[in-house]
Write a structure and sequence with these properties.
Keywords: Membrane, Transferase, Transmembrane, Transmembrane helix. Pfam families: MAPEG (PF01124). It is found in: Membrane. InterPro entries: MAPEG, MAPEG-like_dom_sf, Membr-assoc_MAPEG. The protein has about 130 residues and is mainly alpha-helical. It has one domain: Up-down Bundle (Four Helix Bundle (Hemerythrin (Met), subunit A)). About 85% of the residues lie in helices and about 0% in strands. The chain has four helices and no strands. It has helices at about 5-30, 40-70, 75-95, 100-130. Helix 1 (about 5-30) packs parallel to helix 3 (about 75-95), helix 2 packs parallel to helix 4 and helix 3 packs antiparallel against helix 4 (about 100-130). The longest helix is centred in the middle third of the chain and has 30 residues, at about 40-70.
Length: about 130
């Protein structure tokens, strides 16, 4: 088990926790009561950040850990760190306007793809050596 990969995992969970808190704050600010999921467009953007981040975590966590195990934990943590920066930029941009989410989305998506493809290569290399 890699402490670097574990750190990135904990930081990703912390980022997600902050995003969840932001939804609650936006509900109060924009007066969108539970269980309503629509209302003020500003609230909807904050909610979309939370939903999209959850969707991305499903791909990110396994790819991060597989890459770290089969390829290199330090490289995995570095790429995972780039994913974190991308998700933070995505959230910050999307909170302001939907058009401003693109750069962050691209950084985090590219990071996930690198982790996933790297994992597959590492797994295949491991199988070939058997």
């Amino acid at each position: 088990m890699s402490p670097w990969t574990s750190l990135i995992t904990a930081l990703a969970l912390l980022l997600y926790f902050v995003v969840i808190i932001n939804v609650g704050r936006a509900r109060a600010k924009y007066k969108v009561p539970v269980p309503q999921m629509t209302g003020d467009p500003n609230f909807e953007r904050v909610l979309r950040v939370q939903q999209n981040t959850l969707e991305q975590l499903v791909l990110f966590f396994p790819a991060l850990w597989l890459f770290s195990f089969y390829v290199n934990p330090l490289w995995g943590a570095g790429i995972g760190g780039a994913w974190l920066v991308g998700r933070a930029a995505y959230a910050w941009g999307y909170y302001q306007a939907a058009e401003k989410r693109g750069v962050g989305f691209a950084i985090s998506s590219l990071s996930s793809v690198v982790l996933l493809l790297g994992s597959l290569i590492g797994i295949i290399q491991s199988l070939v050596r058997i």
